Amino acid sequence: MVAGAGRLASHLEADGEGWLIISDIAEHLGLRSRQKLLGWIEMAGLKVIERLDIRPKHPKAQDASDPLHAARAAEVTSLWRLGRADGIN
To answer: Is residue 79 part of a domain?
Structure first.
């Protein structure tokens, strides 16, 4: 996270939202933890309002010969609705 990340929330109205669409494949590959992501959201002065998930439907998620098959089969892509931690949401 960059310096001054706590100011990200100041770009939102008190009841505004920022949306983050992100896959959890980095978690399955051991590159990032869910706690790390949640920590970055908190450091930015944001809170999670809602998270909507979808499982992959692309062919690589079904291809057992793919070296990343296990991670891709377990992958979930999420829409994170974020609001100001001090906001009305």
So the answer is: yes
